[in-house]
Design a protein that fits this description.
Number of domains: 4
Organism: Ephemerocybe angulata
Oligomer: single chain
Subcellular location: Nucleus
Helix content: 40-55%
Structural class: mainly alpha
Biased composition (Basic and acidic residues): 279-294
InterPro entries: ZnF_BED_domain_contain
Strand order of the largest sheet: 1-2-3
Radius of gyration: 49 Å
Shape: elongated
Number of helices: 14
Order of helices and strands: HEEEHHHHHHHHHHHHH
Distance between the termini: 93 Å
Number of strands: 3
GO molecular function: zinc ion binding
Amino acid sequence: SSGEESDGLSAFRKVKANDELKKNPTARGPVNTSRSEFTGPTKDTGVLKGKRVLRWTFKCKHCGAIRTFPRTVDGPNAKWEDEPTKPRTSNLAAHLRSECKEYANKQAAAADCEEGTQPEHEYNLPVIRDIMAEFLKKGELNPAHNLSWKGFLKLFALWILDDDLPWTTGESPMLRDLFKYLHINYKLPSDTSMSTTLLSLASGADFRRDDYFMAMTMDNASTNDEIYRNVSRYLVSIYGTTSHPDRHIRCLAHVLNLVVQAILADLKEADAQNEDPDEPLKNDDKNDDYLGNKDTPIHYDVSTDRDQCELEAQRDADLNMEFFDVSEFDDEIIEGIALEEEIDEELKQLGLTSPLKKVRNAPPLA
């Protein structure tokens, strides 16, 4: 942008110029935007060479200087717009350009703040961008601006809010040492000062945004589901918001808990049916499988297995040739017995033992 448009007021001037053109489409040339820096015009009278003259008076908003122009219309309802030929007001612009130091300082401060600064892209929260834009507009971020404790506290609070920092940040020893190193005379604010400042900022800030959405977090109780449905209908009917019932997400942990509780309840009812129907359950001990088997060893012991011992005793009796006549066995049984004895003999010569022998001869577990 050009130097003339870097004062931060170019957009405002264009809007005012368009409004003036709409009011007076026959006017030629650019609209005098200097009038916005003056109050008036107001009707006034003066004396020139002993004669009473009518005039319009403009007063500078920055320094209070008065500039007058001849007036040709009179009456209680006379207005500046009623002048058939409006006087030239170039001296208003000349005053702002070369005479009013206050106006020049404000313009320079606004230009310095606007140059290279785009608050809409720097901050995290939209409300912070709005507040910082006001800072830039007022020139409070200009180094030539008079520093104040109120301004420092406000900026410090905005930093805490925008970066989501704890309110006790001002109590950090390292931050205190940094301020001391930079010769900053302001005292770091406490968490109480932060809460008070943020509360005052929130009361004057506009947190409403078109891109905001509302979410409700509730328990899985049916009462809360009814509340959700009523709130949704209310928002749709009053504000025309969009409702998305398909986005109603239930808590997975609660759902699993309810499922497990239902399964356990069914198991408990099944156990209760196996009990004497005439004797109601007094407690859950009757359905506790652990209590009846708590003395059972955890590890399997072959020597204490009754079924296994009976099976081996029967096998040994069948293989005892002193009680049975080998001629009574089938040829396949005899061949199987001989093969097993041959395998045991070979393993014995190799110093090995068959898996079945290992299980049989293993000592009982303690």
